[in-house]
Amino acid sequence: MTTPADRLLDPAEPLPKYRFIVTLDPGDAYLPPAQALLLPLVAAGAFQEVTGLGAQLEVVNYAEGGRNDSVRQLPLRHSWNRITLKRGVVRDRLLWSWYQTGLADSLGARRDGAVIVLDASGRPAMAWAFHGGLAAKWSGPDLHAEQNAVAIESLEIAHEGLTNVL
Length: 166
Known about the structure:
Layout: H1 4-8, E1 20-24, H2 33-36, E2 49-51, E3 55-62, E4 72-80, E5 83-88, H3 94-104, E6 111-118, E7 124-139, E8 152-158, E9 162-164
C-alpha cells in the first residue's frame, strides 16, 4: 500500500515547475587568488522565471554523390542557449554589478552556477549546472503608472555548457 508521502517521492512523478532556486558561484575559479578576493560574491537568488535551459546541434545537408533518394545530415557545431533569469526588482544591486563587471573584465566576470528544481517536499530533485557564465544582457523593468504590477528585471547569461547534475 502506498502512502501520500511515497507518492511525493515517486521518481516517475513529474516535478512542479514553480519550485526552483538559482545559485551563482563566485568568480574565483577564473582568476588568480589575489584578484578573486576583490570581486563581490553573487549568491543564490529568488527568481520568478528561468528560461533557456537548452542547446542545439547545427546540422548541414550533404548530398552524397550516387545517392539520389536522400540527403545525409552531418553535425556541424553545437551551441548553448542563453539562460534568462527574471525577478522582481529588489534593492540589492548584485545582478547589475555582475553585468557591469563583465563590461570591464569579462574574465573576472565569469561565474558558474546552477538551476535546481525542488520536489514537492522542498528537496533538490533535478539540477543543471552551467559553466563559465557571463552576464550578457541586463534589462530593467517596464514602468507603467496605470498598472499595479511588480517591476521585473531580467538578466541573460551566456555560458559555455550545461551539465545535468542530479
